[in-house]
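Before the break, one more example. Copy the sequence into your notebook; we will annotate it together after we see the structure.
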Amino acid sequence: MQYLNITSSSSNSTLSWNIDQVAPSVVMGLCCLVGVPGNIAVVVVIVRRYKSQNFTLKLMLNLAVSDLLSLITLPVWIYTWLHGWVFQRLACKLITYFLYCNLYSNLLTVTLMSVQRYLAVLYPQCWARLCGMGERVLLVTLWGLSGVLASPMIVIRDVVVLKDKGQYSCIRKHRSDGEAVAVLFMETLLGFVVPFSILVTSYFCLHKKVNQTAFFRSQKMARLVTSIVVTFFIFWSPFHVINILKISSIVLKSRTLLKFSEAAWYITGALTFINSCVDPFLYAFSSRKLRQDAQSPGNTVDVSNTNV
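Here is what the structure looks like once it is written out:
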């Protein structure tokens, strides 16, 4: 780790700044300042114009809520990274579970958006059968699955003393190397590989099958779809690359690789929160017809007039 030391001659005290801690803290602080009001604005706009029959708006509202709930935990983590964990062991587990539950909800909502758009455009009658109860079941299932995927955090998160820093920290504490590899692998598989594959496949198939229609003649729609995929990849792939490096360091018994992956994990973890700041602009503010869509009772997407 790199340190910047400032010594005061009058007080004979030394202040140490850990770059690996300060850098992600700054990023997460900016995410909190930008993302919280941005997502609140989205929630307010959607709620004011909300019509229960429009599933697209339900998904956008769900996305904004999950982003908002994730971002409001950032002050806790910023303080913890700079000053250590000052809460109880149970709080460590519950706050971490709460955070991961909302992060998984974010991922699953974005994935479901791509599937919904694909089915609503190409198979509107099939999608229309899900209206009402079917859509509510999908949303409940989405949050239930998010809770299940986040559940390992309750087991592996714990408060430990970091000897090199002389402070408590709420971090992962694996009982064995096998458990660490299994958790990291499943996290990358279910938290990135599968959602990203579904996302890309849905939009690729949609583009391929309706390329000759007005749907993708709109440059705005083409840019929006491209930005969805690119943004997801940019802000989530570094975190999971580090997960893979951690797995490699455990398998290869490489302390150098392990130290590098642990140091980089803070930065890449902070990057994932930028995605929650971008979502309001990407999914809501980029659409000129958000208000009209919120007032529209239909669940199907008009191919010739789609901007969301």
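DSSP finds eleven helices and four strands in the chain. Residues 214 and 226 are 17 Å apart (CA to CA). Try to locate both features in your own notes.
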